[in-house]
Design brief:
- By secondary structure, the protein is of the alpha+beta class.
- It has 3 domains: 2-64, Ribosomal protein L9, N-terminal domain (Ribosomal Protein L9, domain 1, 3-Layer(aba) Sandwich); 73-148, Ribosomal protein L9, C-terminal domain (Ribosomal Protein L9, domain 2); 161-205, no CATH class.
- It has 4 helices and 13 strands.
- The strands form 4 sheets. It has a 4-stranded mixed sheet.
- The model is unreliable at 153-208 (pLDDT under 50).
Amino acid sequence: MKVVFLENIEGTALVGEVKEVKNGFARNYLLPRGLAAPAIEPFLTRAEAGAKREAKKQDALDQDAQSVADKLEGSRITMIAKVGEQGKLYGSITSVHIAEEVTKLLEGDVFDHRKVLLPEAIKEVGVQPVRIRLTRNVEAAIEVEVIAEGADEEDASIPLDSEAAVDDAGVATLAVGDEAPGDAATAELADGQLIERSEGDSSAEEKPEATAEEALEEEEQESF
């Protein structure tokens, strides 16, 4: 049966379209609900007027949706999830989860998850492109990045330099892995000379060289 559609039917036809449909579909569903009528006058004229009204309405919807699409286009949503072996998620990321993040991004009313065109739930870490259908004619492309829980935490440990650093007090601190000279735990710089200091010995000082007079006295003592 040839019918003219009086209302939009998602996935089937738009108002004003004339199509050939099965008799049972027309008689049992379309005609009783006023969704379509036989493709004859005055239904054709009525459907044409309805199509013009629908076109104006759709244009207004598309304009509003385009401003939203401009905000979303190219955006990346980052989601943290618990991950098991081989990067597989415990659970999955669905269109509902993504819609919640889009709502935060737009800072507006709750975003309809049915507008998120996700063929199947996301079950592993990585970046995946996702399309958002705002109206029949307007879409936006975003990216959804799923990272493992804790992967974004910075390591608090700071490695020390391999060389000894000298502070204002003249103390040279040895970095991790450097060997202290002898049994010394620390070293001091005094008059340009490196002096070893043993652990527990706080009184170790540089021994001055013997004077000429003291050396002469030692030689005389040895001669006796």
